[in-house]
Amino acid sequence: MNDNAPGAAPAAPPDTMLLTVFLRHDQSNNLDDFQERLKAAEWWERFPPAGVKVVSWTVAMGFGQIVTLELPPHLLPTVNVELERSAWGVFRTECYPTYDFVPVHARIRERVRNGGK
């Protein structure tokens, strides 16, 4: 996207991307069962993989967890493999490339306040 285009996403560092991972709880097991499986899979030591930064990690009651990661694109397969290796069986996973909309929102809001669309 052109940086000057209305509503353009902020320029991200070319060497990183954001990835939002939805970790939906498998409600067929209880928390003790989940913790035992996560420990056995070394989840807490292995996720996120080296070189990947946690931007946010939120628990949504009744849903699961929402994790936003910042990573170099070449580590995307590594994140995928780690999710398959240690999260499956505890969580159902969904992954989405994302970007920070806060600066875009601020630019649009200012533009609208100044009479634009």
CATH topology: Alpha-Beta Plaits
Assign an overall shape: elongated
Using only C-alpha atoms, the radius of gyration works out to 18 Å
Helix content: 25-40%
Mean pLDDT level: 88
H/E element order:
EHHEEHEH
Instruction: Report the top-level CATH class.
Output: Alpha Beta
Which homologous superfamily in CATH is the superfamily?
A: ACT domain
Structural domains: how many? 1
CATH architecture: 2-Layer Sandwich
Residue runs with pLDDT of under 50 for 5 or more positions: 1-10
Q: What is the topology, as strand order, of the major beta sheet? A: 2-3-1-4
Q: How many strands?
A: 4
Number of helices: 4
What fraction strand? 25-35%
Largest sheet entry: 4 strands, antiparallel
Give the class from helix and strand content and strand pairing.
Answer: alpha+beta
> Could you give the distance between the termini?
18 Å
Organism: Pandoraea eparura
Protein name: Muconolactone isomerase domain-containing protein
